[in-house]
Amino acid sequence: MRAVPEQRSVGEEPADEDLQALFGQSIAVFALLSGPSHVLEVANPAFFSTIGEERARTGVPVAELLPELAGQGFLDLLDRVYRTGEPYASRNARVLLGTGAQVRESYFDFTYEPRRGSSGEVIGIRVIGVETTQVKHAQRLMSKHRALLEQIARQAPLGDVLDGMARSIESLSPHGVLVSVLLADSGGRHLHHGAAPSLPDFYNRAIDGIAIGDGVGSCGTAAHRREPVIVSDIATDPFWADFRDLAEAAGLAACWSMPILARDGSLLGTFAMYHRTPRAPQEIDLALARLFTDTAALAIERHHIEQGKLAAEARAASALEELARTVRAERKLRAEAEQRAEDAAELAAQMRAAAALQANLPHPEHCQLGGVAGCTEPAEIKVADSWGDSAWGCTAHVEEAIVNVRSVFIANEELGGLAAYLNRAGRR
């Protein structure tokens, strides 16, 4: 860390010494630049901490010390302030510091103030800044989180909520994170695709339905252990032995996964953050993951409740329909039974009428049931059918008719025959 020097440079305004003392141990960024090339003359520890301790040196132009500023507009602003002598101030200015995998997004409230020599000419620029990155990220985070909660409250489709959540986190992270949410099946044995808007389709298809188990990638292991699993380098981690080629094809180098748990502790799924370069999470990454894992749990539980409610309503509707069909069938059967009873009563009346009509016919001497060959046995028993036909016959032929001819019955006592038949049966 670079200490603030005790001596003032020649031509330096007296106020600079006071500012050096003031910002020496402050968390605010302070730097003194000199000349048109903006050579870093003095900076406080907060400045070097911000740009990286490995770059803590003075006596070099800012453009050389921080080459990533080229194209971001800050060097142009320094030129303008040096040229015009007019100060410049900005709020929540976004700056990308570092390069490659180490790039990070920061926000600052800062001022560029001209430094003047003894004759009033501009000799350099005084830079004072207060980092607002955490505040800015918190504002963005709460805004997106509030929008997600509103979606859940409106009972938006689960897929839309999870997709929006994944995209929100990807936009909040400056490290090129790719988010995936997998959902546990009802048996708690497999994980299925929930949302992963930035992962390749072939990768999402390949891991859809992966088993939950120890050593099954980051997500399968996190689901099995019910605890976060951090894999900083997929290429060397044993958990990814079976998926290493797949991850390489998808350009994935790190994966941090957290289990999504319901309030009762049951497994709902997993929340994963992928990176294209090997990387370990910082505390802010873990805090972000925990917040959105809890949000995902809320959305998934709400979805399960709604699905259960719809299923219960469907079962109730089905039961009511089944009851209605049963009632309709019972009414139909009852109507048919009543109709059969009416038909039977009408038939019985017809039979009685026919039998009464036959009662007035003379009683023959011989059996009338002998067919063409005839029968000389005495006619003892009278039989009738449901169409009103009747005849007298001997015992043998009457019994044969009753057995072999449908709807034949013995006439009642008033018509003769029944008593004789009963008496004969009794004698047997």
UniProtKB/TrEMBL annotation:
Superkingdom assignment: Bacteria
Keyword terms: Coiled coil
Residue ranges of domain GAF in the record: 144-310
UniProt keyword Coiled coil present: yes
Recorded coiled-coil stretches: 320-354
InterPro entries, per database record: GAF (IPR003018), GAF-like_dom_sf (IPR029016), PAS_4 (IPR013656)
Pfam families per record: GAF_2, PAS_4
Entry protein name: GAF domain-containing protein
UniProt source species: Actinoplanes oblitus
Organism classification: Bacteria, Bacillati, Actinomycetota, Actinomycetes, Micromonosporales
